[in-house]
Amino acid sequence: MKILDYSNPNRESYTISFHSSLLWESALGIAAITHDKLRETLTEEAFFSPVHTGEISTKLATELKTVHAHNTWKALLQLLHHLEDHSLPGFQRFIETLDATKLRHYCLPYLNKQWVALMEQAAQGDASSIEAYADACQHIAFFPEYVRYICRTDIVVLKTHLIDVMTHWFDEILSSNQNKLEKMIHRDLDTKRAKLKTFNRSEAFVEFVTDGIDYQPEPSVSNVLLIPHFSYRPWTIVADLQNTKVFYYPIANSSIHPGDPLVPDRMLPLAYKALGDEARLKMVKLLYQGPKSLQEIAATLNMPKSTLHHHLTQLRSARLVTSQSSTYSLNKQKLHELGEALTEYLSN
């Protein structure tokens, strides 16, 4: 086949914007503490100690159980994208005044333009549309049941839950760290905004901020929104809005401990900790030979899948392993860069 390529090699990229607030931090903290599989990988365990030690109110504990059962942290994040006043009273007023259809519409996950009409019908309570939209969301394991819960739950019950979990988390967990968190987040934003000016390509900057996510331009996405967080470190959470890709990214160690040369980049100890286990080293060696499915890894290492999931989660949090369609691959570039990163840290 012969091709004459007259296309533009420098395709239009996306614009980059930032947003931050303590409400984002609250919602992401709620998301983190209710995610069973990732809780043990979180780097800020002390932040969640009131939950671990049972020092929280019965009301907050009850609301967190609802979040855990129905993944309503997703609703909190979705709603915050439509909120102008990012204060706690502003959030409370916003939820109270939203009509049922609009609230549900804001809470539902965005797929693409093709599904917008069906999403609106589901938000209005049409039974067949709810099921159709839930079926369309099966690419994310929890989405179908989440869609059904958002669309079928009594609106007063749903509103009360969303307000109560956000309010009690903010008051009981976040408020005592409010000034510290605000300074860390603003420090990180200032650093990232200054750093953005040194990049020629938006894609390279997103990869830098997210510790390795290679997000290439999509025809339907014109903007990338970057939202810093402390609570969910070391994870980056990726989400879709209409025309926008959202990355909730973990703030850097230097934003938490400014001016301390002994504090390494947060990914450095995370990576070496992930490699500091014999079972995980075996997985790395196996994946170095090529991508493998969970079944292939389990059969080769003679290890239960539950144990494999634990180890693979550790490797994924360190960006050493990626997964797509139930297939795991080794990030060889990240592995090769580890030695250089250690040398750079020791010599500076």
Total beta strands = 7
Indicate how many domains the architecture comprises. Answer: 3
What's the overall average pLDDT, rounded? 91
Helical percent range?
A: 55-70%
Low-confidence stretches: none
Which class of secondary structure composition applies to the elements?
alpha/beta
Biggest β-sheet description: 4 strands, mixed
The neighbouring-strand order within the major sheet is: 1-2-4-3
The separation of the N and C termini measures 53 Å
**Helix-strand string:** EHHHHHHHHHHHHHEEEHHHEHHEEH
Number of helices: 19
Q: What does this 3D model show about the protein?
A:
This is Winged helix-turn-helix transcriptional regulator. One of its GO terms (molecular function) is DNA-binding transcription factor activity. InterPro entries: ArsR-like_HTH, HTH_ArsR_DNA-bd_dom, HTH_MetalResp_TranReg, WH-like_DNA-bd_sf, WH_DNA-bd_sf. The chain is 56% helix and 9% strand. The protein has helices spanning 22-33, 36-39, 49-52, 58-70, 73-80, 88-97, 100-107, 116-123, 127-136, 143-152, 155-174, 178-196, 202-209, 253-256, 267-275, 278-288, 294-301, 305-317, 332-347, and strands at 15-18, 223-229, 237-241, 244-250, 292-293, 321-324, 327-330. It has a 4-stranded mixed β-sheet with strand order 1-2-4-3, sandwiched between helices. The protein has a 3-stranded antiparallel β-sheet with strand order 5-7-6. A hairpin with a 2-residue loop joins strand 6 (321-324) and strand 7 (327-330). The protein is globular, with a radius of gyration of 21 Å.
